[in-house]
């Protein structure tokens, strides 16, 4: 049985990932691919409990990074790796690129500490494809505010924080241009969807 593929969606809060994740799931299912949807932090009972702490409880930066990777280790062991080994595809809202962007770029975690955690938790493993939704922070903030939802502690950060997060995401994309495809998220949803369909179709064909 062929191993499944792993697709991650990345971008700052308000970049519009959610609706495009749903469209991508429908696209893959229409092609006869068995696919699972997940998210980070989360994806497992342990991960979801850690998610609540991470999104709502103030904590030391290094504690935050370690908990992100702890949730990821459980996610890999309990959900991602078994699904891929069984030939199922996994579409995930965020993975380690988000930790690089938010904790290293946004909060200032030492890059060397991130590298150690990444090498420990998933050595040599990355998504087969990462779709990075790139959007100016001020537009993303307006989108988040328009939902009327109660913001978590990351969403309450100031614009400068999201400028750093965006820059870190783009740096990560420059480091892995074959894996990370940058999408201009400041466009009509149907145009973004067309780009995703083309990119994902190429992965399916491969």
From TrEMBL:
Recall the GO molecular function terms of this protein's record.
Answer: ATP binding; dTMP kinase activity
One GO CC term on file? cytosol
Enzyme Commission number(s)? 2.7.4.9
- Give the Thymidylate kinase-like domain ranges: 9-196
Say if the entry is tagged with keyword Protease.
no
- Annotated catalysed reactions: dTMP + ATP = dTDP + ADP
Q: Which UniProt keywords apply?
A: ATP-binding, Kinase, Nucleotide biosynthesis, Nucleotide-binding, Transferase
Uppermost EC category: transferase
Chain positions recorded as ATP binding sites: 11-18
Its GO biological process annotations read: dTDP biosynthetic process; dTTP biosynthetic process; dUDP biosynthetic process
- One Pfam entry for this protein is Thymidylate_kin
Q: What does this protein do?
A: Phosphorylation of dTMP to form dTDP in both de novo and salvage pathways of dTTP synthesis.
Q: Which family does it belong to?
A: Belongs to the thymidylate kinase family.
- Protein name as catalogued: Thymidylate kinase
Annotated organism of origin: Thauera terpenica 58Eu
